[in-house]
Amino acid sequence: MHDTQLAENYDQDGFVSGVSVLSTEEVASHRAALEQAEAKIGRLHYLTKIHTVLRSPYELATHPRLIDAVETILGPNILLYNVTYIIKEPGTPNFVSWHQDLTYWGFDSDDQVSAWLALSPATGESGCMRMLPGSHRHGMREQLQTNDPENVLLLGQTILNVSEDQAVLCPLNPGEASLHHGWTIHSSTPNNSRDRRIGVNIQYIKPCMYQENTRPASALLIRGNDSYGHFESDPLPPSQIPADATEQIAKRTETNYQITRQQSRL
Question: Could you tell me the pTM of the whole model?
Answer without folding.
Answer: 0.94
